[in-house]
Write a structure and sequence with these properties.
- By secondary structure, this protein is an alpha/beta fold.
- It is about 35% helix and about 15% strand.
- It contains 10 helices and 9 strands.
- The strands form 2 sheets. A 5-stranded parallel sheet has the order 7-6-5-8-9, with helices on both faces. Strands 2-1-4-3 form a 4-stranded parallel sheet.
- Helix 9 packs across helix 10 (about 235-240).
- It is elongated.
């Protein structure tokens, strides 16, 4: 029997990368794999329903290809072969949906993703990338959106003092460091975080990318030497997409 797996991805660019790792893994096991993009057509928002979650994988990794399931295939597989997150049992027919285990698959594809990470519109951030790479740089990722309040997976949001303490410690260790601030709510950074930044800190707030261009923030973060992590997965994925030994500074 021919082995076939349909995967229903969801979430932002980091989640999409992990779903593609699952896609590649199942292909390596001789499955015919297809994506079902129903979530992006029917929901396509964060858990608050405020910010869009588009399928941006094509914009971040334009050279990578995949198959798309038809409407008939989706209905058939969802009705008859839905394994939800239990794909590791490797049934011959599988419809996989939900936040299944896939992060552990990613290390084997690290170089593959790095080589393929060439956003279609990276010319927009070319000068910023040159600046980031021309000096010892730190990307500060401040995740807000649906993680701005208590979240069942991530707990309470990080207080402004966490970020100020982190950059102050890094400044003490690296006198010539420059900080680049990234966020899905950049006004929060300007109104709440910026007034608290010590005067001896050299920094720049990256404010040209909204939540529809998070993959460009991810690309710039991956070029930094150090990353101050926030809630969510952006910092960890930026480290994954970097060939250098990027340090993740977290609250843990």
């Amino acid at each position: 029997m021919k082995k076939v797996a349909l995967i229903k991805p969801e979430g932002g660019i980091c989640s999409q990368i992990a779903f593609y790792a699952l896609y590649k893994h199942l292909e390596s096991l001789d499955y015919e794999v297809k994506f079902d993009f129903t979530w992006y057509k029917e929901i396509g928002k964060d858990t608050n329903g405020r910010y869009p979650r588009n399928w941006d994988f094509d914009k971040a990794f334009p050279s990578l290809k995949y198959n798309i399931a038809s409407t008939e295939e989706i209905k058939n597989f969802k009705d008859n072969f839905n394994v939800y997150t239990n794909w590791m049992q490797l049934f011959p027919r599988m419809y996989i949906e939900g936040c299944c285990e896939r992060i552990n698959l990613m290390p084997q594809y690290k170089e593959f993703f790095i080589q393929s990470f060439e956003p279609v519109n990276k010319i927009e951030i070319a000068d910023l990338c040159l600046n980031i790479q021309s000096q010892f740089s730190c990307g500060v990722h401040i995740r807000r959106g649906d993680l701005a309040n208590w979240h069942p997976l991530y707990g309470e949001p990080l207080e402004p003092e966490y970020f100020i303490k982190a950059i102050s410690k890094l400044k003490f260790k690296h006198k010539d460091i420059k900080f680049y601030f990234f966020s899905d709510e950049i006004n929060y950074v300007k109104e709440v975080i910026e007034p608290l930044i010590p005067k001896n800190i050299d920094y720049l707030i990256i404010d040209q990318n909204d939540s529809t261009k998070g993959y460009l923030d991810l690309y710039m973060l991956s070029k930094c030497d150090v990353i101050v992590s926030s809630r969510g997965s952006m910092a960890g994925f930026a480290q994954f997409l970097s060939r250098t030994a990027v340090l993740i500074v977290s609250k843990k």
